[in-house]
Automatic annotation (TrEMBL):
InterPro entries per the UniProt record, alphabetical: Papain-like_cys_pep_sf (IPR038765)
Protein name: Uncharacterized protein
Source organism superkingdom: Bacteria
Protein source organism: Plastoroseomonas hellenica
Length: 191
């Protein structure tokens, strides 16, 4: 696999862009993910909480995915602002990570739409988007909530990740991104 970015090895940090998705490949595959935000930090949900880590300190090999075509500055701002808001309001959802993602379907259904409408209202009213979240759910929510049209969730937008984040493992997200023409697989971030 081609190395897209290797910290402190002469690769330029500006190859990475806000909105890029990292999916860890160094433990049981793939086990963790996060989203790049302004300042080239990665926001991700861990057992220690929702944290922001400098890109050069990510510490795990990861595959890097980017929307195609590349997000505009406004689109990247929408996605990363949601990540920042989730970080400010949520805690790590161990039950979601261990049970709900394992024993439920990742297909979008009525429950997904209802949750997204609730989160949309919270986002609009600055109430804290979600209370509990795990890594792939955080990434998926950033891309789902960024494409809110008027008073409804816009599932038809090319970058709306059509998965139920509450029930999706990083491996399922990885398969989804690899099989979707609206996403480019850039290569590996090599720790």
């Amino acid at each position: 696999m081609a190395t897209f970015y290797k910290p402190n090895a002469g690769f330029k940090r500006d190859l990475l862009k806000p909105g890029d998705i990292f999916i860890n490949t160094s433990t049981f595959k793939p086990a963790h993910c996060g989203i790049v935000v302004d300042g080239l930090d990665i926001i991700h949900a861990t057992g220690k909480g929702i944290v922001s880590t400098d890109i050069d300190l990510w510490g795990n090999e990861a595959e890097v995915f980017r929307p195609a075509p590349v997000l505009s500055k406004d689109e990247a701002g929408q996605v990363t602002n949601i990540a920042v808001e989730i970080k400010a309001s949520a805690t790590y959802g161990i039950t979601r990570a261990g049970i709900k993602s394992t024993f439920s379907t990742h297909n979008v259904g009525g429950g997904t739409r209802a949750r997204l409408e609730k989160y949309r209202e919270r986002l609009k009213n600055d109430q804290g988007v979600v209370k509990h979240v795990y890594c792939s759910e955080l990434v998926i929510l950033c891309y789902q909530l960024a494409w809110i049209a008027g008073d409804a969730v816009n599932q038809g937008h090319r970058l709306f990740i059509n998965l139920d984040g509450k029930h999706t493992w990083p491996s399922t997200l990885r398969r989804y991104l690899k099989g979707n023409n609206n996403w480019a697989f850039l290569g590996e971030y090599a720790a």
